[in-house]
Amino acid sequence: MSLTHTILGFLSWKPFTGYELKKLFSETDFIYWSGNNNQIYKSLVQLSSEKLVTREVVQQDSLPAKKIYHITDKGRKELHDWASSSPEFAQVKNTFLMQLAWSGELNDRELSNLIGEYQYEVEMRLAMCRTKLERRTVLPDRTEREEYIWEMLWQKEIDYLKGELNWLVKLSQGVVKRSGK
Amino acid sequence: MSLTHTILGFLSWKPFTGYELKKLFSETDFIYWSGNNNQIYKSLVQLSSEKLVTREVVQQDSLPAKKIYHITDKGRKELHDWASSSPEFAQVKNTFLMQLAWSGELNDRELSNLIGEYQYEVEMRLAMCRTKLERRTVLPDRTEREEYIWEMLWQKEIDYLKGELNWLVKLSQGVVKRSGK
DNA sequence: TTAACCATGTAAAAAGTTACATGATTGT
DNA sequence: ACAATCATGTAACTTTTTACATGGTTAA
User: Fold this and answer.
1) A3-83: which CATH topology?
2) pTM for this predicted structure
3) What is the pLDDT of residues B116-166, one digit of tens each?
4) Percent of residues, chain A, with pLDDT higher than 70
5) Which residues of B139-159 are buried (b: 16+ CB within 10 A; e: fewer)?
6) In chain A, what residues touch B121 (CB-CB under 8 Å)?
7) Are A11 and A75 in contact (CB under 8 A)?
8) Residues in chain B within 8 Å Cβ distance of A140
9) Residue B65: pLDDT band by 50, 70, 90 thresholds?
């Protein structure tokens, strides 16, 4: 599971709480994990037990105690080893494409509706992605190479979404041309 | 789960056995499911119990009996309803991008190695995808619109892989330019 | 006063992967 | 002799999702 490694990655920048990690996950679009509570808190317990992180408990009045996690040297080593290990091919789970694949029984209106809904969704994502890119807080102490890679990762996401839109527009046109009416 | 719906989709073309469905899954690249035995046979049992498919048992000498599944009218209705329902946004799980995101501690050789391995993987996929596209058996009784959509789905997959390669080449160049040596 | 934010977690269910199990036939 | 194809399934495990549970603070 690379959720634990992604957490180690964030902690390699600076210490965070579970709550902050959850936000980081949702702010970084090219990381797919829902980052739901269950997974994050469980992963942190696991990472602690493996001595890859340590926890620092900070009491707050009137708010529950914060648990700030710090990466250990062992954790940094684990992160390095994982980052340099053989990559797996990306998994894309796109049920919309399957809906299209079996849209044979849909009428023209239903089909254009389906495509339109997906297009709207992609447009929202693109707008959100651009906003997040602008608002992102770039941490110091990063090499030029690292910053370049993150720039490329964001750009990839934006290009992907733009590509989706282009494809959807082309598809709509092709479908209209072949419409039953 | 849309695995059951994808099975219904294939069965809407013509009846198949579980074994044949497993092959169809692996032959269609834009469907991500591994289509492992467990899931397919379990899904078929479930679909049967919901009366969305019926099973026909064909005895064979010296080979185990085939179970051929047929879609029912109820199954066709379910397929139609699913295909016209609101689409969800695609989920992309790309751990390679996360490895890149935390490649800060890798040296130049390790990083170029990582990128090179992924590039090789994408090239293999692209070659396989093109082969599958050529060899695919197009079933009759499909409208022009349906054929057009399948054409577009295959093209999308190929364009995606080509886009990945272009991005990787650009990334490699940018990384070399910023190399430590 | 209502929603969002801060901050932690648990329980149960669903989905998905990997390995195991059987066994004949056909092609290289 | 070995691998691939045909054909079914089960068991154990891991991963992921969804819902539940608590409760104070802050801003519109």
Assistant:
1) Arc Repressor Mutant, subunit A (1.10.10)
2) 0.94
3) 999 999 999 999 999 988 888 777 788 999 999 999 999 999 999 999 999
4) 99
5) eeeeeebbebbbebbbebbbe
6) 87, 89
7) yes
8) none
9) confident
Q: How long a stretch of residues is chain B? A: 181
Rounded distance between C-alpha atoms, residue A178 and residue B156, angstroms: 19
Q: Which residues pair with B1 in a beta bridge?
A: none
* Closest chain A residue by Cα to residue B104: A146
Token pair belonging to B168: 């990787």
Question: Which nucleotide's C1' is closest to B60 (Cα)?
Answer: D7
Which residues of chain A neighbour B145 with C-beta distances below 8 Å? 104, 175, 178-180
pLDDT digits (tens, 9 = 90+) for B78-122: 999 999 999 999 999 999 999 999 999 999 999 999 999 999 999
Q: Three-state DSSP class for A66?
A: strand
Q: Residue holding tokens 């000498």?
A: B61
User: Which residue numbers in chain A have pLDDT < 50?
Assistant: none
Distance A162 CA to D12 C1' (A): 43
CB within 7 A of strand D: which residues qualify? Answer: A 1, 3, 33-34, 36-39, 62-64; B 17-20, 22-23, 37-38, 41-42, 44, 60, 63-67, 91, 93
The string of DSSP letters for A100-147 reads: HHT-TTS-HHHHHHHHHHHHHHHHHHHHHHHHHHHHPPPPSS--HHHH
For residue B7, give the nearest of B87, B72, B64 by alpha carbon.
B72
Residue B179 has pLDDT above 90, yes or no: no
**What are the sequence ranges of the domains in chain A?**
3-83, 95-177
Asked if B155 contacts B102 with a C-beta cutoff of 8 angstroms, the reply is: no
3-class DSSP state for residue A179?
coil
